[in-house]
## 1
Amino acid sequence: EAQVTQNPRYLITVTGKKLTVTCSQNMNHEYMSWYRQDPGLGLRQIYYSMNVEVTDKGDVPEGYKVSRKEKRNFPLILESPSPNQTSLYFCASSLTSGSNEQFFGPGTRLTVL
Amino acid sequence: LAKTTQPISMDSYEGQEVNITCSHNNIATNDYITWYQQFPSQGPRFIIQGYKTKVTNEVASLFIPADRKSSTLSLPRVSLSDTAVYYCLVGDIRGGGGKLIFGQGTELSVKP
């Protein structure tokens, strides 16, 4: 089944404790992206990647890191999480040819205490 | 980057046609207009995409005027299951435009 998977789905952590949220897709998509969703603010893009080893900042990159060493994986790294990073996070992927359709993962709900 | 503006919320009744308009005054020549649907606690799901004029698929129609500064998503005969948040997105991943800005979304509530 074609899908985007994220792990973990739920995470409660404390300020300053490094964490990684994994994202993987099995559709051979070149483009991958991370978003955060907060009440009243819609979806805001954190980072995106046009292909392996190519990443770039989205609208709200501060406090986050990403890497794209393989085509299928695009982990989101929070080196020193803070409470203002408490949010719902979505990973998405898309082809860079054909439709602009993005396929979204199920989301990761992160709480930073 | 084109910024999109949508109504925050809309109400409708089952069986009615719903039209949600999105403004994108600064749309670039290469940008496409894409609409997504999101249910609570789920990721957004692609509905429809267009560049100009009208596009129709099995679930919706998308109307884009000649100046492309706005677009209208039309949902025919909505049902309770169409209650969701609808997002308009302007951009073109294919053209290397990986930086995307979603609007705040329109929360559609369909009542019996």
## 2
Amino acid sequence: DIQMTQSPSFLSASVGDRVTINCKASQNINRYLNWYQQKLGEAPKLLIYNANSLQTGIPSRFSGSGSGTDFTLTISSLQPEDVATYFCLQHNSWPWTFGGGTKLELK
Amino acid sequence: EVQLQESGPGLVKPSQSLSLTCSVTGYSITSNYWGWIRKFPGNKMEWMGYISYSGSTSYNPSLKSRISITRDTSKNQFFLQLNSVTTEDTATYYCARVPREWGQGVMVTVSS
């Protein structure tokens, strides 16, 4: 199975900060990487698919980059409603596998 | 708007079978792919398997022969069955339209 190493596990930032979360794959996954946001008690929400494509309805402050083994989710200007857990999913090779998650809190 | 809702017992005894239903509204399960995912205590996540628009399935090898995903197109529902459960199957179970919409999840505890 492809291992996805996500960092950091926990992140504290202030409103307006630029925030980056990383996922590293144990082997090449091309651009088959999605990013999700999960708020407490809610269903996970797809933010970014195929590494850098913004899902419809997601604010443009969210962006994704990377290919191969290294990927980044960026929030350009953190908003209070962005407090959540974020996780990546590789869908290049079956079984699809997840990163360990990043819990984002406000400082 | 596509909505998914998981349902099923919240408590299952060891060695028994876990059975969950995903009810889908706003989209036909005869299109796209539909999956089951679980999140363990401690937040590790596992994609368990999926069923396609045609009814074909793919399962995570880690689950070997314990898993079955089926569907009822007349009710627009798909199902998860996991056999011979142990306490390690305690998790929150989600259904999803691959890769977009997910349900809110249902917590299942395996305990005697």
